[in-house]
Amino acid sequence: MKLNRRGFLKTTLAGATVLTAGSIPFIA
């Protein structure tokens, strides 16, 4: 379960980073 949770966190962080990077051009 720890590995799955860690993978889930990594996926969430990666998704948040992509969304934030994608939002910067619209905000700027």
If you had to describe this structure to a student in words, what would you say it looks like?
With 28 residues, the protein is mostly helical. 93% of the residues lie in helices and 0% in strands. The protein contains 1 helix and no strands. The mean pLDDT is 82.
Number of discrete helical segments: 1
Structural class: mainly alpha
Strand content: under 5%
The quaternary structure here is: single chain
Distance between the termini: 40 Å
Mean pLDDT: 82
Shape annotation? rod-shaped
Q: State the major sheet.
A: none
Low-confidence stretches: none
Radius of gyration based on Cα positions: 12 Å
Q: Provide the succession of SSEs.
A: H
Helix content: over 70%
**Strand tally, please?**
0
Give keywords:
1 helix; 28 residues; mainly alpha
Please summarize what this structure is.
With 28 residues, the chain is mainly alpha-helical. It has 1 helix and no strands.
Topology diagram in text:
Blueprint: H1 2-27
